[in-house]
Amino acid sequence: MVEAIIAAIIGVLAGAGGAVTYTRAKVTGGKHRADQLIADAKTKASDIVLKAKDEAVRLADEAKREESDRRKQWDKTESRLAERETSLDRKLDELDKRAEKLRAQEDEVEDLKNEIREIRTRQQEKLEKIAGLKKAEAAQKLMDMTERDIKQDLLGLVSKLQNDAEETAEEKAQMILVTAMERMSSEVTAERTVTALKLTDDEMKGRIIGKEGRNIQALQRATGVDIMVDDTPGMVILSSFDPMRRQVARLSLEMLMKDGRIHPGRIEEVVAKAQKEIEKEVVRTGEDAAREVGVVGIPKEMLHLLGELKFRTSFGQNVLMHSTEMAHMAGLIAEEIGADVRITKIATLLHDIGKAVTHKVEGKHHHIGAELARKYGLSDEIVHAIEAHHDDIEATTPEAIIVRICDALSAARPGARNISAENFAERMRDLENVANSFPGIEKSFAISAGREVRVIVRPESIDDLSAIKLARDIANKIESTMQYPGTIKVNVIRETRAIEYAK
């Protein structure tokens, strides 16, 4: 047992000795590697330090160069500033010298002014002593003499300028009107109160009349139109004061003849259908008229009434054609004189819109038309132009005056009112005869297609107040003895002339 223990202790000691020997060898190897690493680190550190020194030297050199460049720039800037300062000092010195010179000159000028004032005062005193008048009295006397000398010349010049202005204005107005009339000359359509309808054959007359007149009576009741079937071959005459009724009756008969079934029940259906067709045509016609004139923004209700004017006549003239013709002319005139073209065209196109409802509403058509325009929201300028296109209301805007002028141009020319040339000439002679029937008349002329009668009186027989009374008397006699469309202007002219001869 003891031997075993001893053997174990010997074994342990032998193992420990081996371990010590291994450890020493390992420590020796580690130290060698550490020395090697330290040497390498010193070498790398030396390289880094050298590079850092080189970089520091380079940066220092660059900084020195930049500082040198900046110093050079500063030197240049200082040199420029010094030069400018020197230049400014030189200029200030020059300005001071000029200021001194100007002050000296001002003193000289002031002295001269004082001297001139003294001389003028002495001269004025001498003149007042010589003339025996004060300055204000002499100025007033001079003004009186000048006014007396040139007064007549001034009056003549003013009169000449006024006459030239009037002549030029009249010529210009005539040129504008003639140009508008030449550019817009439309066909005059005369319609009466009857419409002739051509039949397909003579047997159709019997079918239209029907058994014991039932068909024709049903047609007359449904349309309100007198249907006259006389001995004229192939024709039926429709008579009514209302053109729309005549149009409905004409279209109904055409549809019945085309269909072939003519009896009271069918007649009522066809008449109702014809009325709808006419209603569509009315709307389409109003829109076409506005499109033709070139205006937009008119209310639909006004366009509907405008379309109805296609079936209205005034003194034989189709009202819609009259209105569209006027609108074209009005646009041309408004453009020439600088008026509002849109307002002028709309007002002219709608000026007779009241005639579409005159058979339903009491009153004059221009007042009715103005109320309709106001009701449907048109502007005050358009309402005024519609209402003032006749003489009972004064036209206060250029657009209203243009509407009135175009109405006269379109309606008063020969043929537009369905008057023959012989009747036209006879009416002109009657107008002149009415004017010549009064005492004190030298001569008279019917002008503007009978829209105006110009009366020239003898000044020794008629004074100014009598001329006013004479114009009223002539107008009253024309109203009581003649029939005419529209209005007639009575223009009484009294002229006094003074004639003298220089020998």
Largest sheet: 3 strands, antiparallel
Low-confidence parts: 187-191
Strand runs, count: 8
Instruction: Report how far the terminal alpha carbons are from each other.
Output: 194 Å
Content-based structural category: mainly alpha
* Backbone CA Rg: 57 Å
The residue fraction in helices comes out at: 55-70%
What can you see in these coordinates?
Helices cover 69% and strands 7% of the residues. It is mainly alpha-helical and 503 residues long. The strands form 3 sheets. It has a 3-stranded antiparallel beta sheet with strand order 1-3-2, covered by helices on one side. Strand 4 and strand 5 form a beta hairpin. About 1% of the residues have low confidence.
